[in-house]
Design a protein that fits this description.
mainly beta, 6-stranded mixed β-sheet, 5-stranded antiparallel β-sheet, 46 strands, globular
Length: 578
């Protein structure tokens, strides 16, 4: 039995006619389609009726039940693209600082009675607690603390043709700490198949195929068993000749609002590519959804302008470009460019954009903020609907700091509800590397701890947030020191820090397992929660040894999983991402 669907379309540039295709999806599976050819007037909304065949739908739980399963001939459980609520924030895959986070959405015209639902799984077989929707019908929150870890959410609304359901998004909820009511988002887990388990991407930039060096990126899916040497990855070939070192791979966040994370990588040519996630993840040898040119540094930014789509930041030779997401994916060209003069007295800072990162929503205003590194200082640019506003992060010690090597949003270290950040640099006087913590706040950012590593160790050339490693509700950070000790034998090391609710405390140092120049810690990444136990995990690369190590929280007393690259000379592990 077909479902009659009435929609409105508009052709803003009078390029019609349009071929309209409506696709009904349930948990990522296409369950009905319909199409119509439409001629419209520029700028005018034109009503269209078409039939969606729903005879393939079934539901063992009974018609009309909010169980996440489709009901026979019942549109209530069909997530149709037209008329369904559109989720806005927090962006899918991000962590939040409050276990009762404020979530927002946008209702289509003519829809009413929004119902917010949280669940422990994407199928919505068992809802978590009850919820309150604000009077305006476009925001709400849980009435109870959400369970720590990944939680899925969606919104259902009433239309003239029946209930409509939004896409399914997920967030990472914290364990309740203190009484702060501030709700802010930070970070984004790489989960390309949307199953709630963190995934890991690892580059092998020197890998050869049929005698030709083309390089590859491997994506390892998380599961209840975690990620081990037995985990079968998908592979993405280099697209512009040899990727060559250094290759960058990064989590892009959800750039098209479908609830699945995207993957970014930069090749040796300076091109970067976007690969879209989906219900089945990223396929072997998948084609990219977008290509960006002139890329030195790249990172997923979160939702800078609050439109419900993740954005991407690119740094290259003193210029930072912002590419904005949309329902169609990432824009082909940047809408915003920065050169740092607005934050540096009209003078372009040296090294501006050599490193870029997502800062999280450091002032809790609902817009994602970004980190940009430069020589001697770093900058946070605050997001908004219309413009980016800079804040200068100038370390109070080590005034001879060279270029910012690494920067990262690390979550709420001091439990005040505002996400914090960390940046690093090297003292030109004594070759000592340091990492500087800056604390988020509504109006200002203040410097917190200074973490100092051994001279010549390469301390803090790599930094990554690791979420709640030990289950106490506080986030942590890992810092690589790949040249430790500074002798002819350099196994490398990684420093692990966890928060106690006020500051970071050092854990035992992880020393490289190889007694040679393994560069253990040259690449580090948080891995989200790869096995669903509610604790953060992390991965360490050592590319000369063609190996990466996956550490699961609480990590002490737990042996890491070792992942070896497919070819001994592939430089597997040169870059890792979560």
């Amino acid at each position: 039995m077909p479902l009659r669907l009435a929609v409105h379309v508009a052709d803003q540039n009078a390029s019609g006619p349009l071929q309209l295709m409506i696709i009904g999806q349930l948990d990522g599976n296409i369950v009905g389609t319909g199409s119509a050819s439409v001629v419209v007037t520029a700028g005018r909304h034109t009503p269209v009726s078409l039939d969606i065949e729903t005879s393939t739908l079934s539901d063992d739980g009974g018609a009309g039940q909010s169980d996440g399963a489709a009901d026979m001939q019942q549109p209530a459980d069909m997530a149709l693209g037209v008329g369904a609520p559109r989720l806005m924030s927090p962006l899918s895959g991000t962590a939040v600082t409050n276990p009762r986070p404020v979530v927002t959405w946008e209702l289509a015209p003519g829809t009413t009675n929004a119902e917010l639902q949280f669940c422990a799984n994407r199928q919505f077989t068992s809802l978590v607690g009850t919820t309150t929707v604000d009077p305006g019908g476009a925001s709400g929150r849980s009435d109870v603390d959400l369970p720590a870890g990944v939680v899925f959410w969606r919104v259902r609304a009433t239309t003239s043709t029946g209930p409509m359901t939004s896409a399914v998004w997920m967030l990472v909820a914290p364990k309740r700490i203190g009484a702060s009511q501030i709700s802010a988002a930070w970070g984004h887990v790489l989960d390309v198949n949307g199953d709630g388990f963190g995934d890991i991407a690892i580059t092998a930039p020197a890998e050869s195929v049929s005698g030709a060096m083309i390089g590859r990126v491997y994506v390892y899916p998380g599961s209840g068993a975690g990620i081990t040497s037995a985990t079968v990855p998908t592979a993405i070939d280099g697209l512009d000749g040899p990727l060559t070192l250094p290759t960058v791979v990064a989590s892009g966040g959800d750039l098209n609002g479908d609830g699945y994370g995207e993957l970014l990588y930069r090749g040796g040519s300076g091109h970067a590519y976007v690969f879209n996630g989906g219900p089945n993840g990223i396929a072997n040898m998948a084609a990219p959804a977008a290509m960006l040119k002139n890329v030195e540094a790249i990172a997923g930014a979160g939702d800078i302008d609050g439109d419900g789509y993740g954005d991407v930041i690119v740094g290259n030779q003193g210029v930072v470009s912002i590419y904005y997401g949309s329902a169609a994916g990432l824009a082909a060209s940047p809408r915003t460019t920065l050169d740092g003069t607005d934050a540096n007295g009209g003078v372009a800072p040296s090294g501006f954009g050599g490193s870029v990162a997502a800062a999280g929503d450091v002032n809790a205003d609902g817009f994602a903020d970004i980190l940009v590194g430069a020589t001697g200082k770093s900058f946070v640019y605050l997001g908004s609907k219309t413009q980016l506003t800079p804040r200068v992060l100038a370390p109070s010690v080590g005034t001879d700091q060279t270029d910012t090597h690494a920067a990262a949003g690390i979550g709420d270290i001091n439990a005040d509800g505002y996400p914090d950040v960390i940046v690093s640099g090297t003292s030109t006087a004594n070759k000592t590397n340091a990492a500087f913590v800056f604390l988020g706040g509504a109006t200002t950012m203040t410097q917190g701890q200074v973490l100092v590593g051994p001279a010549g160790s390469g301390f803090a050339v790599s930094i990554a947030p690791i979420g709640d490693l030990n289950g106490d509700g506080h986030p942590g950070v890992v810092i690589g020191a790949p040249y430790l000790p500074a002798t002819s034998t350099v196994p490398g090391a990684v420093y692990v820090y966890v928060s106690d609710g006020s500051m970071l405390s050092a854990e035992p140092v992880l020393n490289g397992p190889f007694d040679d120049n393994s560069n253990f810690g040259a690449s580090v990444a948080g891995a989200g929660d790869i096995n669903g136990d509610g604790r953060g995990d992390f991965v360490i690369g050592a590319f000369p040894n063609n190996t990466a190590w996956v550490y699961r929280g609480p990590w002490t007393g737990i042996s890491p999983s070792t992942i070896t690259g497919p070819a001994a000379t592939s430089s597997f592990g040169s870059s890792v991402a979560e």
